Write a sequence for this structure.
């Protein structure tokens, strides 16, 4: 049986809207605001109903422009690896510091995407990040936190 | 107005701002040239850089990026038949055949001159139209603004969705829902934070833009790198040919450019329409206007066929600034990103911007023109070299886009949660893109969410909770009627007609 993924996404959006609407009704407002023409929960409640309306319509109406995606041609593995690397990068950037984590993130991303020109990979990671850091921190005066560079005395 | 123009010129012609326009045009051209990456991504990537500047300089940089990206999109359309942005799809109809005939240099030169002329003419229209519109829009009240925002969101959903109106409306609602996270602006009551302190201030605009555009574009390119239908073509840059345009070709362009610039500008002013529709309409109109002999050449390398969409898409870019600068309501996804950046600078666009921050208002308009000149000076001689950028391997490009996106969030908040949230939103956006859920409506809704709630709140409080404010004023009623017509028409089309490509 062929499942129309657009309809599945619409169903998920319908469920999400239901949850959003339920949460909107749970928003605590001040007692004096309870019966006011507009309070903190009014707009979210309308949005919840709008979400139900449009996703409901999408679910029940015929879909003349069905989108067919050929999953066999999609590079799920590399995309997933890249997402995982990005998560690890996000998790370590504050503790380790901008320079080292960013350089390693770039270097490993090039590697997992299939690049093997080591010199170019190096140049476009460590020196590139150093130059970019200088532009942000040194020229544009945008603060960059880097415990690693601070610990070795490179950054003040 | 003369005084304003002089203020704008003084601001825009400082060494720093000229440098910013140059940098913006250059990077915009490079990013716009890469298939899949459009002006929104280019501007989103530039936002962190603008933090260090004053609002006028930051916006001048972004305006430069915008024009550069649109021009860059034309380059990939002509050389690769892979438009970098939807607004340059029509450019490829005649630009690519011209390149195949060994006249790539000429095609790029025609595109550059047409873009310049279209942008220049529309900057002049903007110069005269924006102040008068600002004065008119001062009479707008909360119900009108609320209705106008509904119209803007509906229109962008209708025009950007390629026949998938309901999907676009779902994205509008999702954008508004994301905007509702955090403290309520009036009562300070927290909403949808689930006791997570990181969400108390709401979701950052830059985070949403980076996630839905830059990051999800990058992930989509990787995901589809083996897809034979995607535009992953390798460039063979052999001979570009001469970039000289002869007298006959110039004569044809002189006729095409004025009419295409007018249609482009007017379409650009309409909320939601933008460069894509403008370029297609200009192409279609030009085809109907020219003589039979010229009509035969359309699709096979016609000068008129290339010049018309190029003029119109640049004119539409200037036009889309009109609703943003005068009403505070962006007319396109790209200007929505710029509006978000303006709000980030603490500048409230709208009719009063013209009076309260004339240097910003006029310097943006002036920098548009300067941007056009620089784009021409910079890009025309550099065409053969810039074109080589198209050969940058994706193995390097994708990690660099991800790096710029994450850096953008990192320098803003120094918070891991924001990075995780961005990756999460990017993954969902990538998946939704696969099934043609458009992202510009989401961004526009996210930007307008707060303003929309504010205007609805004021309108409802003033009318004691009655919804009569929707038809009390003729202006409000007219705007809403237009919105209803758009909704009904698109639902009818979805139900009873198969949308033609």
């Amino acid at each position: 049986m062929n499942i129309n993924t657009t309809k599945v996404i619409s169903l998920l959006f319908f469920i999400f809207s239901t949850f959003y609407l339920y949460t909107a009704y749970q928003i605590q407002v001040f007692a004096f605001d309870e019966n006011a023409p507009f309070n903190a929960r009014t707009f979210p409640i309308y949005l919840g109903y709008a979400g139900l309306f449009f996703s409901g319509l999408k679910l029940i109406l015929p879909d003349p422009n069905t989108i067919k995606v050929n999953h066999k041609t999609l590079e799920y593995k590399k995309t997933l690896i890249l997402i995982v690397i990005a998560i690890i990068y996000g998790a370590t950037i504050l503790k380790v510091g901008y320079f080292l984590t960013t350089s390693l993130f770039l270097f490993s991303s090039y590697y997992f995407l299939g690049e093997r020109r080591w010199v170019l990979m190096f140049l476009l990671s460590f020196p590139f990040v150093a130059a970019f850091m200088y532009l942000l921190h040194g020229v544009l005066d945008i603060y960059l936190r880097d415990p690693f560079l601070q610990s070795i005395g490179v950054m003040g | 107005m003369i005084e304003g123009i002089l203020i704008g010129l003084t601001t825009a012609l400082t060494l720093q701002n000229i440098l910013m326009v140059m940098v913006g045009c250059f990077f915009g051209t490079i990013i716009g040239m890469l298939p899949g990456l459009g002006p929104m991504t280019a501007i989103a990537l530039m936002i962190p850089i603008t933090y260090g500047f004053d609002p006028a300089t930051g916006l001048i940089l972004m305006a430069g990026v915008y024009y550069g990206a649109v021009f860059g999109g034309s380059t990939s359309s002509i050389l690769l038949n892979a438009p970098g942005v939807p607004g340059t799809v029509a450019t490829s109809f005649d630009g690519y055949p011209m390149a195949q005939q060994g006249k790539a240099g000429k095609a790029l030169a025609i595109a550059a001159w047409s873009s310049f002329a279209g942008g220049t003419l529309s900057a002049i229209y903007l110069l005269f139209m924006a102040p008068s519109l600002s004065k008119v829009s001062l009479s707008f009240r909360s119900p009108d603004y609320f209705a106008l925002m509904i119209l803007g969101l509906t229109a962008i959903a209708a025009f950007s969705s390629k026949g998938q109106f309901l999907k676009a409306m779902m994205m509008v609602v999702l954008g508004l829902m994301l905007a509702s996270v955090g403290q309520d602006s009036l009562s300070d009551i927290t909403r949808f934070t689930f006791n997570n302190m990181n969400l108390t201030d709401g979701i950052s605009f830059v985070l949403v833009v980076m996630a839905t555009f830059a990051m999800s574009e990058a992930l989509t390119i990787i995901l589809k790198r083996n897809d034979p239908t995607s535009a992953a073509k390798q460039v063979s840059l052999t001979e570009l040919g001469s970039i000289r345009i002869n007298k006959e070709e110039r004569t044809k362009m002189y006729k095409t450019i004025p009419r295409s610039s007018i249609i482009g500008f007017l379409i650009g002013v309409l909320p939601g329409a933008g460069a894509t529709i403008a370029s297609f309409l200009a192409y279609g109109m030009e085809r109907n206007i020219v003589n039979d002999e010229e009509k035969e050449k359309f699709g096979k390398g016609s000068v008129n066929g290339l010049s018309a969409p190029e003029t119109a898409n640049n004119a539409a870019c200037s036009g889309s600034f009109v609703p943003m600068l005068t009403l505070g309501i962006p007319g396109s996804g790209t200007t929505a990103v710029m509006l978000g950046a303006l709000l980030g600078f603490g500048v409230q666009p709208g009719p009063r911007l013209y009076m309260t921050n004339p240097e910003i208002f006029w310097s943006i308009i002036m920098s548009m023109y300067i941007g056009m000149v620089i784009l021409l000076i910079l890009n025309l001689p550099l065409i053969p070299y810039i074109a080589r950028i198209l050969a940058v391997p994706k193995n390097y490009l994708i990690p660099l886009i991800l790096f710029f996106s994450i850096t953008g969030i990192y320098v803003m908040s120094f918070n891991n949660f924001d990075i995780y949230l961005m990756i999460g939103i990017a993954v969902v956006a990538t998946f939704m893109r696969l099934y043609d859920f458009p992202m510009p409506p989401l961004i526009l809704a996210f930007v307008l969410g707060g303003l929309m709630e504010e205007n609805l709140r004021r309108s409802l409080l003033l009318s004691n909770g009655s919804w009569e404010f929707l038809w009390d004023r003729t202006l409000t009623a007219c705007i809403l009627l237009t919105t209803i017509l758009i909704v009904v028409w698109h639902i009818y089309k979805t139900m009873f007609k198969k949308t033609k490509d």
